[in-house]
Amino acid sequence: QVQLQESGPGLVKASQTLSLTCTVSGGSISSGGYYWSWIRQHPGKGLEWIGYIIYSGTTLYNPSLKSRLSISFETSRKQFSLNLRSVTAADTAVYYCAREIRTTVIANDAFDIWGQGTMVTVSS
Amino acid sequence: DIQMTQSPSSLSASVGDRVTITCRASQSISSYLNWYQQKPGKAPKLLIYAASTLQSGVPSRFSGSGSGTDFTLTISSLQPADFAIYYCQQSYSIPKTFGQGTKVEIK
Fold first, then answer.
1. How far apart are CA A99 and CA A114, in angstroms?
2. A2-38 confidence digits (pLDDT tens)
3. Chain A residue closest to B29 (CA)?
4. How crowded is residue A93: how many other Cβ atoms within 10 Å of its Cβ?
5. Across the interface, do B34 and A110 touch by the CB < 8 Å criterion?
6. Across the interface, do A108 and B34 touch by the CB < 8 Å criterion?
7. Across the beta sheet with A3-7, what order do the strands follow?
8. Mapped to the 3 state alphabet, what secondary structure does A67-114 carry?
């Protein structure tokens, strides 16, 4: 049973870099067919897709965050990481890592496994 | 970006009621539509993918329908465990976007 767990600081100062890691257990992070993703949820609000990385190292980012964002693998540790630069209060949110899978139906992609989420507050 | 609009934003219902939530996309997304359930303090859980396919382990009282721009999530007989927020999400194009959520509350 694949499980995901986010880790990282819960408080980041404005203008600095938010860094989070997602540890994957119970399965291989290196196998194809999955998109290892980050999603965030602002307090009391809806969900925002941040981006993903696939086994080859290819990444795809939300254009609204692309200029500040990088997602990378640490394959040996079965982890993938999020770095968001120059944060502001608007980046305060619960950050989730998730596995996105290409389902067998019409090649639709869906987030089938999620971490528990980690709250990150940006302070001034 | 494709905008996903859910209605209603919230609803009150009783155990045993039939509940319907709608999701409208700002452009056609074929059947590239997923539904999630989120309970307080928890991560979302995938319920339905590709508009109408039930995720493994999800009770059969949940069903989805629609294609193009208009989609529906139906709970045939609401159970106590179903009080939660429900989100639709399109996987048709980047960036992937979610609806604003529909909160299902106890009447």
1. 6
2. 999 999 999 999 999 999 999 999 988 887 889 999 9
3. A108
4. 22
5. yes
6. yes
7. A3-7, A18-25, A79-84, A69-74
8. HHEEEEEEHHHCEEEEEECCCCHHHCEEEEEEEEEECCCCCCEEEEEE
